[in-house]
Amino acid sequence: MSGLRDRRVLVTRARHQARALCEALERYGAEPVLFPTIEFQPVEDLAPVDSAIAELGEFAWVVFTSANGVRFFLDRMTRLTATFPATLRIAAIGSVTERALRERGVTVDAVPEEFRGERMPAVLGELSGRRVLLPRAAIGREEIVEKLRESGAVVEDVAVYQTMPATPEPEALRSLRAGVDVVTFTSPSTLRNFLTLLGAEGGEVLASATVACIGPVTAEAARELGVRVDVQPAEHTVEALARALSALLPVTSVPDGGSRDRAAAPPQA
């Protein structure tokens, strides 16, 4: 039996991205509580993006680090009626990013086995003197840029979208304050904005609930902020996150008409 059965699980992803995680949680019997802490917008200055699109034929690789990067970059290409040259190769970090590209009809040539940007140079082959385009968030981790440059690549790091704090709706706040058993984070931004939006109240929620992070980058950010991490799946996907929670949390039984404390004690290490 699933340990997520009847658990209230807070989903902090952006609203337009939350469906996959909510559906995965529901398959294990959980009750998702949607509380978006971030939203995405195109960068204000699109000139660098447009310049990179105009020069696509001069790049050896385009490396996408997220589904959001795919969406905003390809939307801009569509607006400019641009296409990928046949000589250009496409790389993606993670299965979600790869799927976002394939859904837009883009062939993916390389995906590292470990879903971390630092692993990307190993799958791109010889990079010395070759131009590599990184269309990604305005504030992105520098490790991938450093690793690509160490491999000899000439990296064009172009911001195509920005991550903004979401304004919590009254209904979302009421649902959160009704109590949750688990809080999930799928990026460092979801965690940082959760704490920014809720302040001390957010710390109290995390202290009494199980905290789950989708992967090592998010978990590392949590620990740097003093947040305990209880669950981190080996595979960095929403399905793996729900499955890990289901396996780790103790199965609870709630009699008909009964009630239980919604604040689940974090699992013991």
Concise overview:
With 269 residues, this protein is an alpha/beta fold. Helices cover 37% and strands 18% of the residues.
Topology as H/E string? EHEEHEHEHHEHEHEHHEHH
Using the 3D structure, state the CATH architecture of the largest domain. 3-Layer(aba) Sandwich
Q: What's the total number of strands?
A: 9
Total domain units:
2
How many helical elements?
Answer: 11
Poorly predicted sequence stretches spanning 5 or more consecutive residues: 254-264
Strand ordering within the main sheet: 3-7-6-4-5
The largest pleated sheet is described as: 5 strands, mixed
- Judged by helices, strands and strand pairing, the structural class is alpha/beta
CATH topology of the largest domain: Rossmann fold
Average pLDDT level: 90
Q: What is the general shape? A: elongated
Q: What is the CATH level 1 assignment of the largest domain?
A: Alpha Beta
